[in-house]
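User: Design a sequence. Structure:
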């Protein structure tokens, strides 16, 4: 399965919503860490939950963090946490949300304080 990952650098990429079945392909592409930026339930009852994705990520040996953000309400604390994760999580790191846009925006904001 080819996932439409946007590779910002060799250390960081973004992607739209995933489910647990996508994680094996993500790991196979060499990603070591996954950041979930999408709040649970945002997409309704059919959106995979953080817990489902986290369980599979951990089963596959991926590092996983849940850092949910609302696109129009990203806080400074979330930006600081993202900057911290970018510095401390094993890379390459893949962040995802609904479309990949808020993960990309959060990434660029975090780079400004790094």
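Assistant: Done.
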């Amino acid at each position: 399965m080819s996932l439409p990952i946007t590779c910002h650098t060799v250390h960081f990429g973004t992607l739209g919503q995933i489910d647990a079945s996508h994680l094996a392909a993500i790991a196979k592409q060499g990603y070591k860490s996954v950041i979930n930026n999408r709040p649970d339930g945002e997409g309704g009852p059919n959106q995979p939950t953080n817990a489902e994705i986290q369980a599979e990520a951990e089963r596959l040996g991926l590092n996983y963090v849940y850092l949910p953000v609302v696109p129009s309400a990203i806080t400074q604390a979330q930006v600081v946490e993202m900057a911290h994760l970018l510095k401390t999580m094993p890379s390459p790191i893949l962040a995802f949300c609904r479309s990949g846009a808020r993960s990309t925006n959060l990434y660029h904001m975090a780079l400004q304080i790094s």
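The domain at 6-113 is CATH 3.90.190.10 (Protein-Tyrosine Phosphatase; Chain A). Strands lie at 6-9, 12-15, 33-36, 63-66, 93-96.
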